[in-house]
Design a protein that fits this description.
The complex is a heterodimer of chains A (350) and B (163). Chain A has 350 residues and is α+β, with helices and mostly antiparallel strands. Chain A has helices at 3-6, 46-60, 77-85, 91-95, 131-146, 180-184, 188-197, 229-256, 262-275, 281-296, 305-314, 317-324, 330-345; strands spanning 24-33, 68-71, 101-104, 110-114, 120-127, 153-154, 158-159, 171-178, 200-204, 216-221. Helix content of chain A is 45%, strand content 15%. In chain A, a hairpin with a 5-residue loop joins strand 3 and strand 4. Classes of the chains: A alpha+beta (350), B mainly alpha (163). Strand 9 (200-204) of chain A pairs parallel with strand 1 of chain B. Bound molecules: zinc ion (2 copies). Residues 3, 5-6, 8, 28-29, 31-32 of chain B line the site of one zinc ion (ZN).
């Protein structure tokens, strides 16, 4: 697999094919696992980290189908940034040092970080709302690896992790929602309040640890200890339909609103793309967000959700530079970004 | 992650866009978040990232204790853990059991695992015990500068790990 080829399209989990795709972009489940015999990553020396990497890579070859492994130690910074923008590695991993890497399969639905905060971080991504599907895939992957790698596990505390906030199941399940209408009506704050009352975590973001933009919200479980994985999945999954319903109602209300009509906002967004010769990443994401909403409510018949979701990734700086074939300074990137949007969205420059 | 206003765990994360390039990340517990959302005021503390952080205003049982023991396997002390938010090795859960139980109660509201168990639990348990013994021996051999023994132990560890 070649990273340069990767940037031209998005992972299969970002194709807007899953349930509730007009609002739920994707579902992710992560499991943290550690090898019993080694200190946690932050306390392991490079020799030990190298051993962990070797051990895991060896076992990964026995998984069907075996994922490709990309060591990060000598990888150029731009390539590491590409992996981060694709949600395949964390920000800390992109900027860290020492033996570490990521394995993933074609389509990027399954990935595995080695020597992140924990020795292993398994990750499964699914399109739309599909917690059950994500859990069953990752459970199976975990079982396959468990037979080959001696995990750190205690009957009292479960899977032992570097940070006690992850101990127990080691599982973080999350659903990424696009909630522009709830943000517009300011009802998003009520959603925040309701969710954190039941120990769910809400992050306003696009991309983990990245800036909040594009009206994307990631909702995930906070508690990892004392509840079973299916219970955690069920509790998280239980609240999502209600949020979807609120967002849909808010979208309909916004469409019907004559004071600040949604159609005007969509037209202004199109005008911005047509006229701006330069665009920052935040501006591009804001525009894409409105167009995603427009597409979801049937106000942009020529656009598709998958195409927009792919652009959210491609307007980020590393992808942009890879697509343009070389390093660009910030001004050049802003120009390239504005052009990319016009070209991909088929909007003529005005 | 800790609340930016009090020592409780943060459950609410807000990223506020103040300006085109100025973004502020807020992490708060339920109570502080409700207050924040109610009056819309800004939190002026610098952002913290990802992990529970030490808080001198909040003496815990562990923090108040004069001497904290260190893990015989990785050498970390509980105070060091408090300052980084990360434990040193899986055996720290035994070493600092008491302190951790209090912390887990606070973070998760529970102190016992009730989820998935490795299919081959016995094997994991034997592995765990055997490996921690070998690791300990290896440390001893290295500190005695008995490199022949250390090499032998390392081979044994390798063989066990690859099983
Ligand atoms: Zn608080
Ligand atoms: Zn230790």
């Amino acid at each position: 697999m070649n990273l340069d080829a990767l940037v031209k399209s998005s992972g299969e989990w970002l194709k807007a094919t899953g349930p509730e795709s007009t609002i739920v972009v994707s579902t992710r489940v992560r499991l943290a696992r550690n090898l019993a015999a080694y200190p946690f990553t932050s306390r392991a020396n490079n020799f030990q980290k190298g051993e962990i990497e070797g051990l895991v890579c060896d076992k990964l070859q026995q998984i069907v189908p075996p994922p490709d492994y990309f060591p990060l130690a000598n990888m150029p910074a731009l390539d590491r940034q590409v992996l981060f923008e694709r949600h395949l590695i964390s920000r800390d991993m992109a900027s860290g040092d020492g033996p570490r890497g990521v394995a993933f399969n074609t389509g990027e639905a399954i990935s595995l970080m080695v020597n992140e905060e924990d020795h292993l971080r398994l990750q499964v991504m699914r399109s739309g709302l599909d917690l059950q599907g994500a859990w069953s895939v990752i459970d199976d992957l975990d079982n396959q690896l468990e037979g080959k790698l001696p995990y750190a596990f205690s009957e009292e505390f479960g899977y032992l992790t570097a940070c006690p906030t992850n101990v127990g199941t080691g599982m973080r399940a999350s659903v990424m929602l696009h909630l522009p209408a709830l943000e517009h009506t300011r009802h998003i704050e009520q959603v925040y309040r309701a969710l954190q009352k039941i120990s769910l975590e809400v992050r306003g973001l696009y991309g983990e640890g990245s800036r909040a933009s594009g009206h994307f919200y990631q909702i995930s479980n906070q508690v990892t200890l004392g509840k079973s994985e299916p219970t955690i999945i069920k509790e998280l999954g239980g609240v999502i339909p209600e949020i979807i319903r609120y967002e849909n109602e808010a979208r309909q209300a916004w469409l019907a609103d004559t004071q600040q009509p949604l159609k005007d906002r969509i037209q202004r967004t199109r005008d911005t793309i047509a006229t701006e010769s330069q665009m920052t990443c935040e501006e591009a994401i804001e525009c894409l967000s409105i167009l995603r909403l427009a597409t979801a409510v049937g106000e942009a018949p020529t656009l598709e959700l998958a195409q927009l979701d792919e652009l959210f990734i491609q307007v980020q700086q590393a992808h942009l530079q890879k697509l343009m074939g070389g390093p660009l300074d910030s001004e050049e990137r802003n120009t390239a970004r504005a052009q990319l949007l016009r070209q991909k969205l088929n909007i003529a420059a005005a | 992650m800790r609340c930016q206003r009090c020592p409780k765990p943060a459950t609410l994360h807000i990223t506020e866009i103040l300006d085109e390039d100025k973004v502020e990340e807020l992490h708060m517990c339920e109570d502080c978040a409700q207050r924040f959302l109610a009056d819309g005021q800004k939190v002026k503390k610098p952002k913290s990232k990802g992990h529970p952080e030490p808080d001198s205003d909040f003496p815990t049982e562990a923090g108040a204790r004069e001497k904290s023991p260190s893990c015989p396997h990785c050498g970390i002390t509980f105070a060091e853990y408090r300052s980084t938010g990360r434990l040193g090795c899986p055996l720290d859960y035994d070493t600092f059991r008491e302190d951790l139980v209090a912390l887990l109660e606070n973070v998760h509201g529970e102190t016992r695992h009730s989820g998935k168990v490795p299919v081959n639990l016995d094997r994991h348990r034997r592995h765990h015990d055997e490996l921690s013994r070998l690791r300990k021996d290896l440390q001893g051999a290295i500190s005695r500068e008995d490199y022949e023994e250390a090499a032998k132990l390392r081979d044994q560890i390798k063989t066990l790990e690859s099983k």
